[in-house]
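Troubleshooting log. The previous run stalled partway through. Resubmitting the same three chains, unchanged.
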Amino acid sequence: MTEPQLPSHSSVVVIGGGIMGCSTLYHLAKEGVKDAILLERNKLTSGTTWHSAAQVRALRSSQNLTDLIRYSVSLYKSLEEETGQLTGWINKGSLSIATNQERLTFIKRQESLAKLFGVKAESISVGEARERWPLMNTEDVIGAVWSPDDGRVGPSDLCAALVKGAKSRGAKIFEDTGVTAILTKDGKIYGLETTRGDIKCDAIALCTGLWSQNNAKLAQVEAPVWACEHFYLLTEPVDAIQGNLPTLSDHDNHLYCRDESGGLLVGCFEPFGKAIDPDRIGENFEFQLLPEDWDHFEPMMMNALHRLPCLEDAGVKMLLNGPESFTSDGSFMLGESAETKGLFLGCGMNSVGVATGGGAGMALAHCIIHGHTPMDLHEVDPKRFPDCFNSAENLAKRVPEVLGEHYAITHPGKQYSTARNLRLTPLHNKWVENKAHFGQFYGWERPLYFNCEKEPTLTFEKPEWFEQVGREVKQANEQAAIFDQSTFGKILVQGTDAEKFLNRICANNMSKSVGSVIYTAMLNELGGFESDLTSLRLADESYRLYVGTTAVKRDMSWLRRHIQTGERVTLIDETEHYAVIGLMGPESSTIADKIGATELNQVGYFRHCESQIAGADVRAVRMSYVGEAGWEITCRAQDAERVYDEISAAGALPSGVLAQSSMRIEKGFLAYGHDLDTDINPLQAGLGFAVNWDKQFIGRDALLKMKETAVSSRMVTIILEDTQAIPLGNEPIYLNGEIVGKTTSAAFGYRIGKPVALAYINTSISDNLEGIQLEIDIARTLYKGTVLLKPAFDPASQRMRVKLQTQGKNYNEITG
Amino acid sequence: MSVLVIAEHNHQLLNPTTENTINAASQLGEVTVLVAGYNCEKVATATANIEGVTRVLLCEDDRLQHHLAETLADFIITLASDYSHLVATASTFGKNLMPRIAALLDVSQVSDIIQVIDENTFKRSIYAGNAIATVQSLNKIKVVTVRASAFESAESSNQPASIDRLKLNADSELSQFISQQLSTSDRPELTSAAVVVSGGRGIGNKENFSMLEELADQLNGAVGASRAAVDSGYAPNDYQVGQTGKIVAPDLYFAIAISGAIQHLAGMKDSKVIVAINNDEEAPIFGVADYGLVADCLEAVPELIKALEA
Amino acid sequence: MKLLVSVKRVLDANVSIRLKPDLSGVDQSNVKMAINPFDEIAVEEAIRLKESGIAEEIIAVSIGEKKCQETLRTALAMGADRAIHIETDSQLQPLEIAKILKVITLQEKPEIIIMGKQSIDSDNNQTGQMLAALLGWSQGTYASKIDIQQKQVLVTREVDDGLETLSLNLPAVITTDLRLNEPRYVKLPNIMKAKKKPLSTLTAESLGINLTTGIEILKIEEPAKRSAGIIVNDVQELVSKLKNEARDIL
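Second attempt completed without errors. Output:
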């Protein structure tokens, strides 16, 4: 039929007509963007959405991601009334089963989490599970959790409803319209070219699913998305199936099962998937499927036959193989790109597209219109990916494992095994010599702990590394330990306006003298944490910012965006130029003397100085993330091994990330992504001391308002009585049967001899929180704990701040 | 180049599609037509009067009553050496017969051509009409079947061709005719009708199909059906239009309550004018229709019949 | 009775085809493939004959590249007893296929050969008839019903005018039409069992047949596109359009 004309201008163009594109368009239109349009190069849903199994399970790893799905559920229900188009929403709940103890602990942890997030979930007996799913073989099932609010939708119907709702508000859709170029100027979107004409626009939402990497490149943006084959079996009708069934999640066997058209649908996330290059799938992959692969599916088929004996007699209609998109870490992308202003990404859904789509489209539309997501969504920030995952090679290696991890138990210490050794710190060889067990953070290999003889078996019980980490903590606590902090982002901020600029961006006073070290937040307009960092003033017009390992792309982006026209400020990412070596412990001052770095013993707390170690120039900051006396020593990457050898010869021994983590939790030092995010402000976090109220900074007004009223929740330390308890963070906290807070970080505190957790709790429970007895729910068992308003270990920080004296002896005398 | 066309007939009347085939054949060379049957002299006479036919061969024998492929093939290969091309319509008759002849002659066959490029080169549709292959026959004798709807019908000639009688010199006893169930209809033949009215599963039931027959009669057209309608029992199998049913290209094709699956489109997308009536505006048929009406066919068709009466 | 069923691996019927830019053919990479639907009907019919006790052994044959074995496994999973894969990467025409099948037929000596009337990719509708000719056997094409008697088989055929029933002497070649049966869905245990059933491979070149085809494919291109049509609002408008713009026809 004759097609309507493409407009010459549109405020926002959505590219891609799958669930993400349709939902984003719907929400843009709903929020008043009257001229929003969607361009789909083939037909709506013809990529991945149309063949999605469309499961909607509410519980995710965080409150906000869970809330996105809950929003989706209520939207999918209400869309029918609003548009007259059914979405096919079927609410029959989901049943998670466990066949081993670790899984049982995990689903119970999930149950605790559900209660924390306000999602209905209950442990039920095996017998009750069988009643809910009579066709299931339960002989090896040891436990189950029932989530009544889960369900599924019809993906094509859902998109039809979203599109109807969008069109009724003025939005327009253009199928068979491919985008051939994206136009940018000075790093900002201003239009695009299509197969049917050009359009000027202010923003683009890229919702192109597994094809997003290529499409993003049109705008000079990196979107590390790859594709994997995804299989599910469809059978002809089975007599025993009457009506709809709940979804059965048999994750130990990598399966999800439900009814479909009177028969069974059995899908899998097998332990190691099959990656497929989006270029090989091609652009004309419209309502297409990939070849069946019975050989690959066979192990899953055996699992399915074991769990559902009735499958033996059910005729198989087809083994559907449809490609889905995956990212390097299993979470999707939602937000503005780092590289190009106005280019927003909503893709890489890792098989939760239909479930999350309603909420994600809402969040993306909000982000486009208001400049930020409606709530903290740092887990899905497109700026979280290290550049090493832009490579097709690394993505192709990683995504089969990501697919396999979809149903894996998220044990503490879990690490990917593929695509490793992408970035090595300058001291990597030393860690290998010390038999480090490595973890990957932002592409970097970091030593988790040392003296590891074999790959540890992961568990929710006491971990295999427990004693070793304890030894490493002891090393720092009683002697001297070396920590590799080279993965910190290092950003050089220079220029005549550097101080003015930083004062505007940072909450703390950046005007302190050269030689000062400043810990500060970067806040958003609402007063929430965009980042926390440590700044060294190197010179009047020169600052070096140390940011978290995973924060550098995000923080660079934030800083860059906030440079005003004409402001004389330059930013340089120096992360790879420098190593950062932490030397901490009561013996560290002796070592500093021994190696002739006497300046270290002279520099005051929270100040920095220059010195030399093993003939290499170093800069040392007198501070400690672990609460022991010592320094974070920065040197050039190529000098790191010399410096290490010198310190190590003088008696310091390596300690890993897990030891560091345990110690910082004992000290109540907060970590972004765990204890801090954009929904948290400094007042809640107890970091009001790092705010300088006497100047204008981003977020000041919002914070001032909040200061007037007491904070509703605040950060505390909780020490658990039971030394066998293993808190991990993200656990609900109960007082008299009510949930009053949640843990954010936790570890065994070796220096205090008890498990310790950092937590946010409601301030309304008492005027004086100090000493209150609460209970932490770990896998549905309650553990008693006591609230402290100060850190668990060395609350006065005497150890960190101790005035260091040189021994007065020189190195030769000591060695004699 | 000399072409032998195998006429399709029912001993009384020449099947009109043979005229289209004769037209196609005349692009290849001098056309001789074989009329093989029983008491079918009338057919031979009619054939002799078609433009492009230089000679008619008439073979009458009661063993040819049912046009059994085994017998016919054995007979035709005895004539084959005189010709460069052996051609028939790509009907169930021609499709059943010609490959047997080709194999006996140890040559390949080009099936269901839609265009003649030269005496060796032809175009044909593959993948349900989603691709067009240009193929060249390398054999000395070319065996070809013709998609009648892709060629114009032949004119009548003012110089009738000669008719030569032949004796049947073959009798394969491999198969015997038992019975038949033919649709009797006064309507034009589906594959040669100028107007076709086709119904899909959306028609709902067999009774409603009569509404389509009424429309067809009004326009002097034939009635067709989608596979789904035939499978549901609304229409007999010989009404089926589609990739594996009949391929038609009338001047006017009505697709009533037909969604427009690829396999159906393969059978009718070369129609001159396509009209689609369907109550689902997203139905793929609207992608090929010249005129589309989104409406309930049970209301629209009676209305259409009324409007055309006026 | 021994039955031979020939099966072809083709693009799945629901796949939209993509042509190679050099017009040399259809792009088959990463595309869902399936057993030719008409061959599937043939396999189903063979299985039913076995289940009713008429046939004892069903042999499935496929000719083509290595992946044809997947199609043979489908036939085995449906119930065929063993499979023969004639491996070749050459593009063959029905005549060569028929010649290969003739060699196999002379080896295996089936009494009935059943195959689909045409494959949905090449749409040739020739192989069964050619094979029957080469063997000197009777042929029953477009079968919608098969009834095996003592020394004959009654085949009801779907023809242009309706239905026709023939009696074929055995041995015979029968090609299937759509309404012969509805193929069963395979069960998972049978898919596993299929892996254990015998599947032998021969190369086409080893059969001593001339595989040079008499057809050369010069190019494969897209069909001409129809120009877009319009939506009319009601019957009146439709009639008016037809009378004005398509008046020759009316």
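Takeaways: The longest strand of chain B covers residues 30-37. The mean pLDDT of chain B is 93.
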